[in-house]
Amino acid sequence: MTSEQPLSHLDATGQAHMVDVSGKDVTARSATASGTVLLSPQAVAALRSGTVPKGDALAVARIAGIQGAKRTPDLIPLCHPIGLHAVAVDLQVDDHGVLIRSAVRTADRTGVEMEALTAVSVAALALIDMVKAVDPGAVITDVRVEEKAGGKSGRWQRGEGARPSENPQGRP
Asked: Between residues 6 and 133, which one has the greater pLDDT?
């Protein structure tokens, strides 16, 4: 963006407003995001053995992430309410915690990056709620968009032209 181009979420007086997307074409759009919940060895063991005191933490986090994606415009003030056609949330337990990935798809006039990020964030929060009795020190980290596709700007993928500092741990 050059200095001559106004910021799209500011009106002529500098006030924040929702961008008018009514003139944009409806296209297939998708986004994936990821994040990690770092956990103690005890919490990882409880997840792997299915002995989390509150129950199936991974299932609860998955459903919470899906619900979070659907509620994104209620949480992010300038985010457009759009119809989501698919939301998938995947949680993988490793020795350090849980990697969360979300994939969101729509056919609409604006992208779904915020919905993908919200899915990961809400899934991470729900996971922490489920394991906090076992690990009160759990940490959410590295929540980020991995790729997006569709619309005027086309496809973007982390690592393609990204600054080296954007992927310091070499994670996918």
From this structure: 133
Question: What is the distance between the alpha carbons of residues 153 and 166, in angstroms, rounded to a whole number?
Answer: 20
Amino acid at 142: D
The pLDDT tens digits of the residues spanning 48-67 come to: 999 999 999 999 999 999 99
Token readout for 91 is 């949680």
H/E element, 46: helix 41-49
Give the chain's largest Cα–Cα span.
Answer: 58
Three-state secondary-structure class, residue 78: coil
Name the pTM for this structure: 0.86
* Domains (range + CATH), the chain: 27-149 (3.30.70.640)
125 SS3 class = helix
* pLDDT at position 33 over 80: yes
Active site residues: 129
Instruction: Yes or no: say if 130 and 54 are a contact pair by the CB < 8 Å rule.
Output: yes
